[in-house]
Amino acid sequence: MYAAVCAGAAAWLLWNRERGPRRARLLFAGGGGGGEARMPALWTWRRWGPVVWVRREWLCLVAAVVLAVLGESVLPLAAGAVAVPLVRRRLRARGHARERARRADMVIALCGAVAGELRAGWQPAQALLWAARSTGALGREEAAVLAAARFGGDVPQALRRAAREDGADGLAGVAACWQVAVDGGAGLAAGLDRLQAALRERRDQQERLRAQLAGAWSTVGLLALLPVVGLAMGWALGADPLRVLLHTPAGWGCLVVGGLLEAMGLWWAGRVVRAGEAL
């Protein structure tokens, strides 16, 4: 029965996924009459998927509820409530790191696009206008930079302001190349090519370092799972570790001391790995 329900839900989602683009094509082609019903977008994964993705930290509370029911204690609920903001902070830090990497790639693409358009015969301002709109590397300062390029403003200064965003520090190099080309008459395309090569080499070096440290991060994750493995071994041996930990004074002491040691171990291991990433 459950398999039939899942199959029906999957078919319904696929049908709505194909129906939306078909209706859009009819509307833009002038054939969108009243015969097509509106797609129920309220329940589509495209709308609710990002919400579920952002709120993954609430899975800690779900796991705490399960442990609280199995152990017949409210202590897992308190631990889950404490873990939610910590996990949220960690997920946000990972999201910011991905955003910085994405912005750095956009700056590299901007350098290559501007250099290519300059070799095609465009003026620097026109090349910057097109490359900025196609790559989106300027972020919130895009309007200011484009206005400076279009109306003869201080483009290097606008680029330096845009370089203050996370991951966009390469725009400071673009500003320096622009300043040298304007003041000294040097070739802007050649300077951007060298800057693009340097930024790409730095990105590749960071990726190689992350690949080398992947084993260390795996060790940290294994360290975090050791208490769960210990509880599973206790259940396999016929004991009741949750009842001992949650309902006896000795278990409370072991829980507090073990939690502190676990937190200190994870913090120290993460600190060592992050220090290696910063080299």
Automatic annotation (TrEMBL):
The chain crosses the membrane at residues 61-87, 213-238, 250-269. Keywords: Cell membrane, Membrane, Transmembrane, Transmembrane helix. It comes from the Bacteria. The keyword DNA repair does not apply. Residues 113-233 form the Type II secretion system protein GspF domain. It is a multi-pass membrane protein. InterPro entries: T2SS_GspF_dom. It is found in: Cell membrane. The keyword Cell membrane applies. Pfam families: T2SSF. This is Type II secretion system F family protein. It comes from Streptomyces ficellus.
